[in-house]
Amino acid sequence: MTDAAFMAHALSLGRRGLGQAWPNPAVGCVVVKDGRVVGRGWTQPGGRPHAETMALEQAGDAARGADVFVTLEPCAHHGRTPPCADALIRSGVARVITTMQDPDPRVAGRGHARLREAGIEVEIGVGEAAARADQAGYLTRIGQGRPRLTLKLATSFDGRIATASGESRWITGPGARRAVHAQRMIHDAVLVGGGTARADDPMLTVRDLGVARQPVRIVAARRLDLPLGGRLEGSANDGLWLCHGPDAPQDRRDHWAGLGARLIELPLDRGRVDPAALLNAMGNAGLTRVFCEGGGSFGAALLQAGLVDRLVGFTAGVALGAEGQPSLGALGLSALADAPRFALEDARPVGGDVMATWTRA
Q1: Which overall architecture, per CATH, does domain 3-135 show?
Q2: Does 52 qualify as catalytic in the annotation?
Q3: Treating both helix axes as pointing N-terminal to C-terminal, what angle do 296-304 and 275-284 enclose, rounded to 10 degrees?
Q4: What is the value of pTM for the model shown?
Q5: Does domain 145-360 have CATH number 1.10.150.170?
Q6: What is the pLDDT of residue 351?
Q7: Over the stretch 38-83, which tens digit does the pLDDT of each residue have?
Q8: Paired sense of beta strands 325-326 and 160-162, if any
Q9: Which residues sit in the known binding site for NADP(+)?
Q10: Alpha carbon distance 182, 78 (integer Å)
C-alpha cells in the first residue's frame, strides 16, 4: 500500500470520532511496520484517549522503527494527558506522516518540531484536502471562534414545511428521517429556535444508531417560554442547553436550572437572541460542529448573519402550494445578488426523497 492509502485508512478511522470527540479534533492514526498495519486508533468520546495513544498501545513493541500516519499534527502541550509527540518519541517510531499542521496556538508546528529534534523523519501534507474537509468544524472554531454550522431543511418540492393548518408529519419519508439522525450523530450539538421547541417539543436525540455519546441539545429561546410537562422538560438534565436573552423571567430561569438544564444568557439583536453571540458561546464551550433544524425565522436569522456554512436539504415529491408554510422566514432581500449563495456538494436519493448538501460559496 502507498502512503496515500494508509492515510486514507487513518482518515476513515478519524471520522468515527465526528460528533463524539469535542472539544478535541476527531483524529485517526495508523502504525505501519514492514507494510503491515500493527496499530490503529481514533479519538475517543470526550476527546481522550487520543488517536496516537490508542494506536501505539495496540502496536506495542512493533511501533519501534515503524511509520505512523496521523490525520493532524500530534499535540505538543500538556493537557489532561501528556503530549502525543512525546509518546511517539518514546515508542521509537522512525517516521511520522501527517496531513497538516494543527492551527491550535498550543501546537502550531511544535509537535512536528519536537519529532524532528528527536531524529524522527516527518512528512506533512499527505491527504491534506480530505483532512481539511473532515476537520472543518475544528478549523472554524480555532480560526473564527465558533463552530461550523449546518442548517437542515426538510421540505416539499415547492419549499414548504407544513400545510396552511400546520400539518407537517411527515412530508419526507422514513429514509430521510433516518438520514437526519445520521447527521445528528456526526455533529456535536443539535440546535433549534424557540418556535420549533414550542411547536414540536422535540427530543433532538440520535435514535436507533447505537451512539456512544448523544449530541448536546440546544434551544435558543429569548424568554425561556418553552413547553412544560413534555419531552424537553422531562429530559432537561440530559445535555440540554438553553440560550436566552437578558429579559428572560427569573422564575423561568430558576425552573429550568433546577431541572438540570445549562442556561446561557446572551445579548439581543433585532429582538431575538443575537445569532453571532450564540455561535461564539458555543465555540467557547468547545463545540466544533452544530446541526440546526430550524425553525424558519431562526434559520433565516442565521443566514442573514452569514453564519451558515453548510445546507442539508431533504426534498419530497409533494407540492403544498402557496398557502403552505415556507421553510424560511423573511430575509429582507431586494436584489438577487444579495442572496446567500451555496455550492452543490452532493445530491442523491434517500428512500423516496432527495438529499442535497451545499457548502457556502
Answers
A1: 3-Layer(aba) Sandwich (3.40)
A2: yes
A3: 80
A4: 0.94
A5: no
A6: 93
A7: 999 999 999 989 999 999 999 999 999 999 999 999 998 766 678 9
A8: antiparallel
A9: 154, 170, 196, 200, 295-301
A10: 34
